[in-house]
Design goal:
- Chains A, B: InterPro entries: Homeodomain-like_sf, HTH-type_TetR-like_transc_reg, HTH_TetR, KstR2_TetR_C, Tet_transcr_reg_TetR-rel_C_sf.
- Chains A, B: Pfam families: TetR_C_24, TetR_N.
- Chains A, B: Keywords: DNA-binding, Transcription, Transcription regulation.
- The structure is a homodimer.
- Chain A is mainly alpha-helical and about 230 residues long.
- Chain A contains eleven helices and no strands.
- In chain A, α1 crosses α2, α1 crosses α6 and α5 packs antiparallel against α7.
- The longest helix of chain A has 27 residues.
- At the A-B interface, α1, α8, α9 and α10 of A face α1, α8, α9 and α10 of B.
Chain lengths: ~230, ~230
């Protein structure tokens, strides 16, 4: 299915002032189609059509459908990493950092939905025929691992602080991310909600994710978290 | 893609002693393929091939790919409903029922993975061309709504009991199911884990799901829950 044999065009062929925008537009349009129809059933033609562009326009940026697919994942994971990494590195207690990370993660999910769907739901359901994609696949999996590791480390610290239940941090990241990432299955941006309503949903999801890990959510340190200030 | 125009064969044409098994086998094989390749990219031929059967064998049971897809969802949702409904109807306090329901739900997910994947991840990503599928679609969505409603009602009762945070029960079901259902994205049955290991994962996921809703997981009523007896 992947057309990796195709010669990749150099990225800077035309002086196109709207290039960054074009690339972002292609990624978003392709993400919508991949999520709606699946990888196999989505063609470069369909991506071009949904943008009112030519197939050549897409191939100007991407050598193959697989390239396009991986670039969606890379861009979406990088957006998460850039948003969350500074919060992980702060000086605050682990629990405070974890709550801030969970909220930022959920806000990005809900406001960047099609791209994030592709990124967080991963590659499992999409098959890549060629070995050519293996290098890209590893790079994306590495990004995702790094991202989960950020959380696992803060969770580990919070366990040592005695506020999170004493279970393997990697295992705890599963229901933790699940409480938030499941939104990529049930949430629909088409509902056109106000930013306040989206923010409130993000707080509920991140709140349940964090509370699910806690030994005692009624503890004073937890009650002070801004994440729970409105609904604890 | 759906071949609803095809004449549906009466279900009892042959006296086939292995019929119930055959139907279950077809459902499981088709579920694996739908989840791996997506609805559009999966053909009746591929389902037959993966079973070493003929296309006619599949059409003996199912008039179309859409019928087969809906029957997977129906069978999987019914399995959940049958497992969980008796627990919802018990006389125990709401929190105790909720914990038992969460654990049963997760155990079924993890042990019946391909079928449950199709059921819990829903139809959003799969397109149905024909209007013929609308009736079936509504029936499946109704089953799923009924199932979520079972949980929403027990959550509502637990809010009135003062043990679950006071937020709309329907909204709370989202991160609650997310903590558990996300396993259909990350969990792989191919790891071949022992029943004890699977049970332990189920307890961690259900535990985080329930704890995520609680006002105070350190409360005595919570500590008495068998769900938390091993790792609270």
């Amino acid at each position: 299915m992947a057309t990796n044999g195709k010669a990749r065009k150099p990225p800077a062929k035309k002086a196109d002032p709207g290039k960054a925008d074009s690339r972002g537009e292609i990624l978003r349009a392709a993400a919508e189609l991949f999520m709606q129809f699946g990888y196999a059933a989505t063609s470069i033609d369909a991506v071009a059509e949904s943008l009112g562009a030519t197939k050549g326009h897409i191939y100007h940026y991407y050598g193959s459908k697989a390239d396009l697919f991986f670039d969606i994942q890379t861009a979406a994971m990088q957006r998460l990493l850039e948003g969350v990494e500074p919060l992980a590195m702060g000086k605050q207690p682990a629990l405070e950092r974890l709550a801030a990370m969970a909220l930022r993660h959920t806000e990005i999910l809900l406001t960047d939905l099609p791209m994030q769907k592709v990124a967080v739901q991963g590659l499992e359901r999409h098959l890549f025929a060629g070995v050519a994609a293996l290098r890209q696949l590893r790079a994306v999996l590495k990004l995702r691992d790094d991202y989960e590791q950020l959380f696992a480390e803060v969770i580990d610290q919070a366990i040592r602080d005695g506020v999170v239940v004493d279970l393997p941090p990697k295992l705890l990241t599963k229901p933790f991310f699940g409480a938030m990432n499941w939104a990529t299955v049930w949430y629909s941006q088409r509902r056109l909600q106000s930013p306040q309503a989206v923010e409130e949903i993000a707080r509920v999801l991140a709140g349940c994710a964090v509370r699910g890990l806690l030994v005692d959510p009624a503890a004073p340190a937890v009650r002070r978290l801004s994440l729970f200030s409105e609904h604890a």
